[in-house]
What does this fold into?
Amino acid sequence: MEYDLLIKNGRVVDGSGMPSFHGDVGVKAGKIVERGKLSGNAKRVIDADGLVVAPGFVDNHCHYDAQVTWDSLCTFSCYHGATTVIIGNCSLSLAPVRPGSQDRLAEFLSYVEAIPMDVLRTVDFSWETVPQYMDSLESRLGVNVGTLVGHSAVRHYVMGDECQGRPATGDEIEAMQDIVREAINAGALGLSISKNMGHTDPQGVLVPAVHATEAEIFALGGVLRELGTGIIQGGGGRAAETKNRLMSRLSEATGRQVVYNNLGQTARNPNGWKELMAIIDETSQAGIRAYPLCSPLSNASRFTMRNCQLFRGIPSWFPILRAEDDEKLQAYRDPQVRQKLHAEAVDWSEDTPDTNLARNWYDYMWVDEWVDEWVDEPVLEKNQGFAGKTINELAQMQGKGIIDAFLDLVVEENLDTGFKHGNNNVDREAVAQILNYPNAIVGLSDGGAHVQFQGGYGYSTHLLGYWVREQQIMSLEQAVRRLTFESATTFGIYDRGLLHPGMAADITIFDPDTVSPTNEEVVHDFPKGAWRIRTLAEGIKCTIVNGEVLIEDGEHTGALPGKVMRNALYHANQD
Ligand SMILES: [Zn+2]
It folds into this structure.
């Protein structure tokens, strides 16, 4: 047999969860031909001695919808072994879009997912419909990209500015169904909806999808049932599922797989993950496919009080966060403002609406130790001793109240102090159980989102390095299965996620002894020189997409082998 690519002497972990073995993997015409001891010539041979040969990872929850238009690699997911990324999540796709409404649609994505609007204004919207958007990506992709139809985009397209104010009429719902039908027929992987009560536009109004009635959501989901394909993704699904089983009812009514955000441990609600698991145990036993995503990361965010999002849910804080920097400083100096912030965010004595903030957030927010790596202006020399301390510790050290200690530092350093906050997945035992829970899907990188706060696409290398190698919470075979086969299957990508003959040759080769994400750093590589946080990976030898090497030893080879991932119905209709 003549191969295009022969990967020799690796430890083959094939994505099924079955025991790994020592051997070769042969590739021809973009597909896996065989595994085993293979002889025969190949155009290219890669020696994988000491390395793991696995299916390419499927980065199942991303927001690269805009970025993919200028960055065909969707950096930096593929540097961490991802060969496929899924975009259009949380109702926030960039299609369909009416001419003239592009900025408004981009604003939703910008504000919820923290991608600077100056960057999004550079996007060349050459499409109107979802099929046109998918076609515009085809043939210039480094990685494979699957997209969901975003309910917010659909609602805005049909209802215009009224999409955030009222229920849709029957005609409008039918018009939305037509758009979803057209998109699914063109191969979109599914529909994304949102029940996230924290996802607002810059004016503080919930994004369009959240305004939909249940009847509207079920009507759109019904299109997937009618076509018999596609998946439904639910932003903010955990609260909705806990409240009235919306996610599992939607799955039951449509017969489609539902995935939602998220199963995780959080200091905000320490036992919430167990309560959600009990619900899922019940629904999955009843044969319903409604599963949460979960993340191996604790998702600490880095920020300054120039770009902070953390306190958006606090009524008196929200307008300050949106004000100009000099107005922020003025407010933070004002004793009356401080008193209000203290009442709302420390005493919780006001009627503060449900926020994403833990009541004791000051125990999970630190003065950042790595600040020199990413903040333009270094902090004052005399305050260096505060690095690594929580806000609570800062207050105790100085005998001040929480808000005074925090804002004194912020004002003194002219908003430039770097902070780190994370209260999710901080309980190791809990996270180990969650990552091993069969009714959850591992992923949730948010790649392409929160670009100045975190590099969540490092979830895969973190799972393999920290949780598998160091903590040994699961076998390598199981971890690879979670990163590959499970996500591919969930999203209806039936020809990837396994190193089996006939499957597309999406392959990741990595060193199990060194694989891990590297430290975060700041790079100015976005349009208009805008900055973002970058996290690269150690130990990823090659990322191979459709049989072509895309990334080798951390460098892009120049190849653009990616394809738009289309659903099973689309492929069946092609044959
Ligand atoms: Zn999302």
Observations:
- The chain has 20 helices and 25 strands.
- The mean pLDDT is 94.
